[in-house]
Specification:
The protein is mainly alpha-helical. It is built from 9 helices and no strands. The termini are far apart. Pfam families: ER_lumen_recept.
């Protein structure tokens, strides 16, 4: 554990808390992409296949449970909650996310560290997480105006991955046998996808104005 990994985990956790606050405090999931949430649920379910077989630490296990349970709960709420599901922007959330799943799975079959069931699905989760935010960003661009809590959620989600890049750089220079290249490439791609959002987020913060994304 290092400061960058901890900052990344806490930022990720905070992004989830902000999203849950938006959904339950406003009784609305408007502006939130169900397809992105489904992708994240799939990411965590396939990445943490070792939850009940390999114990690393209490902290590690708790974080895995939190991210799996929160992502599944958000998907359930947006799909089945009698009040929340009526506020879902279905007409705007039309990104074909199954394509991302298929491409990520093919990449995992072709490029992975070790040819085991768990490692292939770990690679799949890394590739899929890199692009899971795309439906959310497309939905926000289509809607134009972004409410404060949704904007905060996307910002902290992007910041989490930026901290993880610093974590990987730190581990590369401090751990002798750390040389996993898959997270590096996927992490840089994921952070690059946020670049446009970060730019408009900074402009809105600087001008103390409501966040708006170009169509």
């Amino acid at each position: 554990m290092n400061i960058f990994r901890l900052a990344g985990d806490m930022t990720h956790l905070f992004s989830v808390l902000v999203l849950l606050l938006k959904i339950y405090a406003t009784k609305s999931c408007s502006g939130v992409s169900l397809k992105t949430q489904e992708l994240y649920a799939l990411v965590f379910l396939t990445r943490y296949l070792d939850l009940f077989t390999d114990f690393i630490s209490v902290y590690n296990s708790v974080m895995k449970v939190v991210f799996i349970s929160s992502s599944v709960a958000i998907v359930w709420c947006m799909r089945y909650h009698p009040l929340m599901r009526r506020t879902y922007d279905k007409d705007l959330d039309t990104f074909r996310h199954f394509i991302l799943v298929g491409v990520s799975f093919i990449l995992a079959l072709l490029f992975h560290d070790r040819s085991t069931f768990r490692e292939v699905f770990w690679a799949f989760s890394i590739y899929l997480e890199a692009v899971a935010i795309l439906p959310q960003l497309v939905l926000l661009q289509r809607s134009g105006n972004v409410d404060n809590l949704t904007g905060q959620y996307v910002f902290f989600l992007g910041a989490y991955r930026a901290f993880y890049i610093l974590n990987w750089i730190y581990r590369y220079f401090t751990e002798v046998h750390y040389s996993r290249w898959i997270p590096w490439i996927a992490g840089f791609i994921q952070t690059a996808l946020y670049a446009d959002f970060f730019y408009y987020y900074f402009i809105s913060w600087k001008n103390n104005a409501k966040l708006q994304l170009p169509a």
